[in-house]
Write a structure and sequence with these properties.
It is a single chain. The two termini are about 30 Å apart. By secondary structure, the chain is mainly α. The longest helix is centred in the C-terminal third of the chain and has 34 residues. The protein has one domain. It has 14 helices and no strands.
Length: about 325
């Protein structure tokens, strides 16, 4: 069996672009539904639908045998990381504007570039490291440490949740790159959806009656812990779209980070930033404040620089090999 990671950047980039578009729709729909349904109910429903689609992908990529793995602990860890990422991001999404939460979450590609050094052994030079630091300064600006809670519109804890989501998402994708050497994208997607289902059932058993949300007027607490309710018929199609999206996202991102270097693919996730601003303005009539715009610009600039620097390095390497022949 081939134990070297694949490196097909073009295909990886196409998969990540399609996945990020679906993520933007997913986030918009979850924020739209967050006022009436608990997060764990939405996660269970979308993941149950998604795992059925993922089983189809499994059959196309080799059948049930590809679900066998010699690294169950790492797969469990990967699943728990992405569940933590989703939960923390969506809890924040219930309390702050879509564009703000997404912009803070986009520290993830910076974390991916940084953590790919110790975890995957990828080489990141001083210029790219400098760009990563510049991007993190943008994250700090978006946190507006000079302002009080009253003017922020949300607690410091809520504002930090998308950054926690970014870190756990980055670790998840680095594990995807590592595990993708021996696991198909469809199998990786099934493991993820199965983890979501198990965790959401656990939430239901512990908090499904809503007793932990009683008496709280905090939007994030209500979203996380309110009681399960039967969806309105008018919302059925929204849950179906969430499930289909989850299947596409789970497969697409797994394939993207299997096919290409994490530091090369990650910057293309930044297409999610303008998409989040668009959906936030179109659906919720929200636009970022000045500090968030500045942070978005800095994160975008750092991500684009990282990508361009990576492309330049590869061109130089190819030319050096050709001259050496």
């Amino acid at each position: 069996m081939n134990t070297a990671p694949q490196n097909n950047a073009n295909i990886g980039i196409l998969f990540v672009l399609g996945s990020v578009f679906c993520i933007s729709i997913n986030d918009m729909l979850i924020k739209q539904l967050s006022g009436g349904y608990p997060l764990h109910e939405m996660v269970f429903t979308r993941s149950f639908i998604a795992i059925l689609f993922s089983f189809v992908f499994v059959q196309l990529e080799g059948g049930w045998r590809i679900l066998r793995t010699k690294q169950p602990v790492l797969h469990i860890l990967r699943g728990l990381l992405i569940v933590t990422s989703n939960m923390t991001f969506f809890v924040a999404l219930a309390a702050i504007p879509l564009a703000d939460a997404t912009a803070l979450f986009f520290a993830a590609p910076l974390f991916i570039t940084l953590l790919s050094i110790p975890i995957l052994g990828e080489k990141v030079g001083p210029l790219r490291l400098g760009a990563v630091v510049f991007g993190f300064i943008g994250v700090i600006i978006m946190q507006r440490p000079w302002e009080g809670v009253d003017t922020l519109g949300a607690s410091r804890v809520i504002l930090l949740l998308p950054v926690v989501a970014a870190l756990t998402y980055a670790l998840n994708q680095l594990l995807t790159r590592k595990l993708g050497v021996q696991s198909k994208a469809s199998a990786l997607a099934v493991y993820i959806q199965a983890t979501f289902i198990i965790v959401s059932i656990g939430f239901y058993l512990i908090a499904g009656d809503g007793r932990f949300a009683q008496g709280s007027d905090n939007a994030s607490i209500q979203f996380l812990l309110r009681a399960w309710v039967r969806p309105d018929q008018s919302d059925y199609w929204l849950f179906a779209v969430l499930g289909l999206n989850a299947a596409i996202i789970g497969y697409g991102l797994s394939q993207a980070y299997r096919m290409a270097d994490a530091a090369t693919v990650a910057p293309f996730e930044y297409i999610g930033l303008p998409l989040a601003v668009f959906w936030g303005w179109m659906i919720f009539s929200d636009l970022p404040v000045l500090e968030v715009w500045i942070g978005i610009a800095m994160i975008l600039a750092s991500g684009v620089f990282v990508f361009l620097r990576e492309a330049q390095k590869k061109r130089t390497l190819v030319r050096g090999k050709m001259k050496g022949r």
